[in-house]
Amino acid sequence: MRDENGRDITDWEIVRRFDVEVEKKLENFQKARKDNNLPDIPARVGLQLMGWKSRQPIEKVLEYSRLDFEHAKPPDDTITFDPPLPEWKQEAIYKNPMSVYTKIFLKFPRKFWDDHEYILHASKTRGYFPILQDLDRPGMLPSGRGILLITVTGDEGRRIEKQTDEETKAEIMTTLKKIYGEEIPNPSAIFYHRWSKDEFAQGSYSEPVVGTTSQDFKNLGRKLGRLYFAGEATSEEWYGYLQGAYLSGKEKAQIIAGNVNDVPPLTDSLLDIHEEL
């Protein structure tokens, strides 16, 4: 972890304490509420109940990267239905808004960053280029590619996706020079997809809000007459993942094909067929 001046502020004792005092306790707290049939609560409320408060920059970037790194925005009305969808279907959709996860790939003539797969940037501005990933490490890409991946999410991701490549490259280089010095080389190429600007995707993947239940996932994937719904957002087990889109699409395609061919629809659930992956 490095601060805005490039100083290494990694403190493994703080990382260990965060794992034990925050993440593990949140997991246990969530499980206890589920076992007692209590509704889920935001992680922020859980942190307050546990008495945790981040004070140092390293604590703040850990908290952001582990708990707040991805958050979504409500869907817009680009797609409309006539007649309107029933209220239970609309509620399920609104509970699964699209989040933004922007991956910015930069190619450099040589590697100059830390020799770690993940490098956290503890900026004073929340969510400002917080996570760097070294794709030059063994097992990632062929060695010597000089590719650095920088990920931004949420509001910062939406802001970055409104910019031109040149604007984003200049902003990143200002940050990297503060960390690694003025002598670092400029990138020869930059690429990132603007998922929030994609009129069909409107984001990277769905992220259910606090309080979403199993019934909401069932309602989201429930058909309306001859209109079927599929996609990762309809999968309670695999939402946010490619396999959720694949498996739910296959399941609905089998049902539709069965109806077209006048044979009983297959009843394989996602749980039954996820072993294929």
Overview of the molecule:
It is a single chain. The radius of gyration is 22 Å and the shape is globular. Strands 1-5-6-7-4-8 form a 6-stranded mixed β-sheet, sandwiched between helices. The chain has a 3-stranded antiparallel β-sheet with strand order 2-3-9, with no helix packed on it. It contains 9 helices and 9 strands. It folds into 3 domains: 12-68, no CATH class; 87-96 and 208-261, no CATH class; 98-197, Alpha-Beta Complex (Polyamine Oxidase, Chain A, domain 2), CATH 3.90.660.10. The protein has helices at 12-35, 43-50, 57-68, 87-94, 154-161, 165-180, 214-221, 242-260, 270-273; strands spanning 2-3, 72-73, 98-99, 101-107, 118-122, 131-134, 147-153, 189-191, 205-206. Residues 265-277 have low confidence and may be disordered. The protein starts with a strand and ends with a helix. β5 and β6 (131-134) form a beta hairpin. The chain is of the alpha+beta class.
Share in helix: 25-40%
**Which percent range describes the beta-strand content?**
5-15%
Could you say which structural class the secondary elements and strand pairing correspond to?
alpha+beta
CATH topology of the largest domain: Polyamine Oxidase, Chain A, domain 2
Widest β-sheet, arrangement of strands: 1-5-6-7-4-8
Main beta sheet strand tally, sense and closure: 6 strands, mixed
Written as H for each helix and E for each strand, in order along the chain, the element string is: EHHHEHEEEEEHHEEHHH
**CATH secondary-structure class of the largest domain:** Alpha Beta
Count the E strands: 9
Radius of gyration, whole Å = 22 Å
Examine the secondary-structure arrangement and name the CATH architecture of the largest domain. Alpha-Beta Complex
Alpha carbon gap, first and last residue: 35 Å
Total domains: 3
General form = globular
The mean pLDDT is: 83
In the predicted model, the low-confidence regions spanning at least 5 consecutive residues are: 265-277
Number of continuous helical runs: 9
